[in-house]
Amino acid sequence: IVDEQVMEMASPGDWTGFYAGLGAMGIAFVEPPEASMWAVDGIVGFNWQANDVIVVGAEAWLSGWRADDGETGVSGGTEIRAGFLVTPQLLTYASLGGMHFYKEDGATYAQFGVGAEYMVTEDISVDLEYKHWQEVSGAGNYSANAISASVLWHF
After folding, report:
1. What pTM was computed for the model?
2. 35: which strand partners?
């Protein structure tokens, strides 16, 4: 017998509100130089469900990262999101934002992304997002691709 409360799915309108969570991100710099890093993210955000199918929101995160050369550091970013509910539980979205690496020769990046978020219960969702970053200030003209996965608690 399955606990009905655990299996209860989100209903329309449940996307409005604040959320917080934890995530992991893999980042690959594609030009120059080719490099990669992993990050652990703390995430906060807010969604507003405009009607049965449209959700808009804003999100911020702070990441601790480690590069493949052993360098470590902190980065943070913000994004706005607009999406379409494929089902009451499945949100697909596009995002625009920015991110900054906090280090001596830190850089700021413009970001666009696409993702999907699924409401597992009324309070818990899982999110998978692809992000592309293009440097807008810093030491060079770097760009990167990232994949992030997170678990979010909605309240």
Report:
1. 0.86
2. 29
